[in-house]
Write a structure and sequence with these properties.
Number of domains: 3
Radius of gyration: 22 Å
Keywords: Antibiotic resistance, Cell membrane, Membrane, Transmembrane, Transmembrane helix, Transport
CATH superfamily of the largest domain: MFS general substrate transporter like domains
Pfam families: MFS_1
CATH architecture of the largest domain: Up-down Bundle
Helix content: over 70%
Largest sheet: none
Number of helices: 18
GO biological process, one term: response to antibiotic
CATH topology of the largest domain: Growth Hormone, Chain: A
Shape: globular
Order of helices and strands: HHHHHHHHHHHHHHHHHH
Subcellular location: Cell membrane
Organism: Streptomyces apricus
Structural class: mainly alpha
Distance between the termini: 6 Å
Amino acid sequence: MSETAPATAAKAPAPDSNRWKALAFIAIAQLMVVLDATIVNIALPSAQQDLGISDGNRQWVITAYALAFGGLLLFGGRIADLWGRKRTFVAGLVGFAGASALGGAATNEALLLGSRALQGAFGALLAPAALSLLAVMFTDAKERAKAFGIYGAIAGGGGAVGLILGGFLTEYLNWRWTFFVNIPFAVVAAAGAYFVIREPSGSRNRSPLDIPGVVLSTLGLVALVYGFTRAESEGWGESMTIGLFVASALLLAAFVFVESKVKAPLLPLRVITDRNRGGIYLSLGLAIIAMFGLFLFLTYYMQVVKGYSPVKTGFAFLPMIAGMITGSTQIGARLMTRVPARLLMGPGFLVAALGMLVLTQMEIGSSYATLFLPGMLLLGLGMGTAFMPAMSLATLGVEPRDSGVASAMVNTSQQVGGAIGTALLNTIAASATTAYVKDHIAGASTQSQQQLVQLQAQVHGYTNAIWFAVGILVAAAAIVFTLVNAHPSDVASSAGAVEGAEDDVMVPVVAH
């Protein structure tokens, strides 16, 4: 497959004077989406009790969102390229606000689950449109580094902010406010985007929509995400779980085959076969696997083992947020135009792995100040440093017409990584916990001793899983050092190419 070259551009237009204002509204929207991934977790026990949701069905409050979001991301990215990123962005925000209002007002289980699926669907429109708007609006290499530094900090730290906000809302108001809080975020971001964002002309991909690609990618990703979710609750050897993984592999293989044949593919294979972007998607997915599992374990450790309140638990994550913001804006953004990306991302993942290595030493009586504080600071610093160039390089060298779907691939790797991380590391922790109880419960003669063994078993399970997360981060660093070879000059020339292409007449892909 090859593509015709764009017509020669006239002199590149001056950068949009409103681009920094636009970044503020894009950042608000991204924060809302990332917050929603964790804020509902803290409110889930209260919502379950209030609406009478069974233990077997409570996972669907999380799963319904994950399935819709993960399954529709590529479709959402393509819609942004076809329909216009600004229009898709605003539509996603309005829909997300409406779905959040429905969830907050839910009077039964079905309404709550339906609202979560709707949130996921509109999030799949919103997230790739936000990232691709940055890609086409910030064309100067240094400005692009700053913009993606801010975006990367939000993408990495927003989940921890969600734990703090979720704790406050659940403890001092009620669980419904974890939904209602999205409405002001969405209204402000949508109004600001409507009046401030001016999408560069000529950057759309007006090729016909690839319907077979949409169906195969959506079904394949839904089967994959649901397979990992089901593996966590039902076991990896359960027949339905295995069937979902087999179906996902077949559907995604068929998707790749179709994309290599059609004239206007949903996901042009040129987007993912580039070694830099391929390395970004793989390493970012692995890093999210490690990170999502850790969020879960630390939350349970602090609330169940240490007895922290939801608010205190949220505040305990502040050092990680501070580390992410520092790594992203003060290290990643400042060095990205001077240092090869692999020398930021690789060491960043290794520093994060070192932070997790510190956390493998946790015990029931571990001190927050001497163990968790340094561990989370290192983790945040490393992830922030790595996330920033990753977010920028995900659209490196991508034509403006492909920026939506390239951005969607970043979100897809994160979403699938989150589903895998939660299921995989939870299973490892549960197995280690069960084995510890079996080996030690016989020596506990009193009830208090048995309770102590149960707590020790939980901590043992967490540390075992975190060891696996350390290994996963080291693997992510190895992928970066092997595949990512972009230099600072590549980033600058890519930005210039995008700027020059914005007013081009884009010619659809021609298959040969």
